[in-house]
Amino acid sequence: MAGSVCGVTDPHASRADHSHPPAQHLHAGRRDAVRSALRAHGVPMLVVTDLVNVRYLTGFTGSNAALLLVADESAGESPAGGTDGGTVLATDGRYTEQAAQQAPDVRVLIDRDCTHAVLADRFARRPDEVADAARVGFEAAAMSVADHAALADRLASSPTAVDLVPLTGVVESARLVKDDGEIALIARACAIGDAALRDLLAEGALAPGRTERQVARRLEWLMFEHGAEAIAFETIIACGANSAIPHHRPTDDVLRHGDLVKMDFGAVVGGYNSDMTRTVVLGEADAFQRDVYALVRRAQEAGVAAVRAGVTGADVDRAARAVIDEAGAGRLFTHGLGHGVGLRVHEAPPVSSGATGTLPAGAVVTVEPGVYHAGRGGVRIEDTLVVRDGGAEILTRTGKELRVV
């Protein structure tokens, strides 16, 4: 890993409150994009129960919610309350004030049984929609079999049949392309990760005698000190032979002179995640460590160079994997090259050998090849970047030369 953090804006330079959701017109535009998708599917309404998707479409961040989105209705004064007549948000009494503040342009119902509440309310106000039968889409990836059965049982008492239609990827497709505000939040989260790692190294907290768990907790606390609202995932600190385990969880194993140390971590700002991996050597690097590191770095550079709008995730994976394959180490690169990043740290689009569809401009993805020698150690290098028409805009700025600490 490189010697210093280059080109990183000081996380303390701006004290703007990034925890607030984007302006309501952005949420309304997102809902209209999903409405277009619903019309294309021939489904008149959708119940959104994935809380990340509820947040994306309304700004509401509570832990219990359901959203009803009607395909043929959008912004405009609604006599029932709210300015978007085709959207109803349900949550429970813990979030009455929060819902009013975070989602002021939609109608809010207070009812713990959120999914049934938004449908019962709609059918009560628009009985014409169930004169014969109603087709209601639901998020198949977010609703459990038990919840689906319970909802179907509740709806069985409706005057006419309600056909529950499983849909996948409707909101997620809209989330693929990030707007400028979303990219700014991800960039801010990346800058926090850069600054936290810089401080960890500067204060000597990554040193022989420390445990993986101690280093992980210190790195996480530094991210909080630089303005993170949460950590993106459990920080990976993997020393020595543990660095050959791609998703090793920190233990009380002690860092030793000569160890490879792999660090995979991320911050959250305004709900948006960052993701970065750097690998260093403690004390002195031997020829094996230098060779593995150089190989992974070449592969990572090839992957980053392949990223641009219009290519597939499989194309990018192939470019990086070819470098490792040519070195005879293909069997030691055991995972996909990367993934999308946004409100979830792992989301669409995938960057892997099985990925289909092209990467759109404005998508945010990772490129993270790794080579793992069981019992000896492994190296992974990962950046978060924005897909642009002319190539990749790298958001994680920590340098990638091999660093010996």
From TrEMBL:
Where is the Peptidase M24 domain positioned along the sequence? 185-388
Q: Where is this region: Disordered?
A: 1-29
Q: In the UniProt record, does the keyword Metal-binding occur? A: yes
Q: Which UniProt keywords apply?
A: Hydrolase, Metal-binding
Task: Enumerate the spans annotated as Creatinase N-terminal domain.
Answer: 30-177
Q: Which organism is it from?
A: Tomitella cavernea
Question: Organism classification, top ranks?
Answer: Bacteria, Bacillati, Actinomycetota, Actinomycetes, Mycobacteriales
Superkingdom of the organism of origin: Bacteria
Keyword Ion transport among UniProt keywords: no
Matching PROSITE patterns, A to Z? PROLINE_PEPTIDASE (PS00491)
Name-wise, this protein is Xaa-Pro peptidase family protein
Report the Pfam families cross-referenced here. Answer: Creatinase_N, Peptidase_M24
